[in-house]
Amino acid sequence: MKRVCKSFLIILSLISLFLLISCNEKEETSDLPISGKIPDEMADSVRVISTNKNIIEYELTAVHFYKYYSTKQTFADTVFVTFFNADGSIKSTLKCNKAEVDDVKNTLTGIGDVVVVSDKGTMRAPIMILDRNSNTLYAKNGVILQRESNTIVGEEMKSNLDLDRVEITKVSAEGKLNEEEINW
Length: 184
Known about the structure:
Elements: H1 2-30, E1 41-52, E2 55-68, E3 73-84, E4 90-102, E5 107-118, E6 121-131, E7 136-140, E8 143-147, E9 150-154, E10 156-160, E11 166-169, E12 172-174
Antiparallel strand pairs: 1-2, 2-3, 3-4, 4-5, 5-6, 6-7, 6-8, 7-10, 8-9, 9-12, 10-11
């Protein structure tokens, strides 16, 4: 009788362990960027360096990285990108919680706590789309641009990666106005 109980407990323990492991695997696949589709490539702690004719254009680091060949999309979590000028100096940096790269449209979308920093200022927004063809960024759903002690708040913003040419809609501002810098 003891032998039957002991065998039953061992089998029950193995079944419980198997169910626990299979449940954990299902939870991981439900966290994938495209629900129900397993990526063609997945990686953790990724560093990507993009070059053009021996010039580094940008360096991207991410905690998680998912690439889908059929849709030509790449998703990443906890993203930091450094954009470089042709001389190797830093043009700007981008930080966001999640990023989506669409290779068909050639865009990078930053989602969640997006921060772009350049010599010209710091931009914060919940969502930012970078058109990689023109290096134009579009921030939406509320944007804050800080330059020195000046803060400009708006609904949407269009700019280059340097943050020196900026268009903001529904603007409010706080700071010191230097009329010599205004081009009406």
